[in-house]
Amino acid sequence: MASAALGAPARPATHIAAAVRGWRLAAATAAIVVVCDQASKQIIVSSIAPESRTRFFLGIDLTYTRNRGVAFGALGGSSLVAVLTIAAVAGLAVYFTWRAWVPMLWLPFGAVAGGALGNLADRARDGAVIDFVKPVFWPAFNLADTAIVLGILGLLYVVEGPRARSRA
Predict the structure, then answer these.
(1) How far is CA 150 from CA 24, 49, 146, in A?
(2) Rounded to an integer, what distance in angstroms lies between the CA atom of residue 149 and that of residue 161?
(3) Euclidean distance between CA atoms 103 and 89, whole angstroms
């Protein structure tokens, strides 16, 4: 009841247990994304020469590119990229903290956080992100980028989708 005395509504024990479970699942999801992302990048680095291409599937090549910017190379070489990434993930973490009890919110949050951490690890280690999936007519990207995009779409679905409307 101390939180109610401070003006914040008291949360039922079930919300607290669900929030703790949500954080654990989000952390596990983020860890899986980081491990898969970093492992895939190491496979590319050890098997494909820089800036070369290998046909993988119809319309998709594997390449080894170092991207110093963000999406499509924008803001290349700027430390602003890391600062903005950290700020965005921190803002999302605050939102998740307030809503961690929401069913399935842990999955998109964990995917976005894991993708961001995977790309930040590249920047910290190499000063650039390793991109390797190159579709025709689209810039190269990596598994972390995919996790971020799918995580954001999943976040929108969990927050605004049919289940959200039924909770309101």
Answers:
(1) 20, 29, 6
(2) 17
(3) 20
- Residue spans of the domains in the chain: they are 29-167
Distance (Å, whole) CA 27 – CA 61: 32
DSSP one-letter string for 105-139: THHHHHHHHHHHHHHHHHHHHHSSEEEEEEETTS-
Vertex 122 angle, CA 100 and 61, to 5°:
100
Residue 63 CA to residue 51 CA, distance in Å, equals 6
Query: What pLDDT tens digit does each residue of the chain (168 aa) get?
Result: 444 445 555 566 787 888 889 999 999 999 999 999 999 999 999 999 998 888 988 899 999 999 886 655 544 555 676 788 788 889 988 988 888 888 899 999 999 999 999 999 998 898 889 999 999 999 999 999 999 999 999 999 999 888 766 665
**d(Cα 130, Cα 64) in Å, to the nearest integer?**
7
> Which residues are annotated as catalytic?
131, 145
Q: CA 145 to CA 47: how far, in whole Å? A: 21
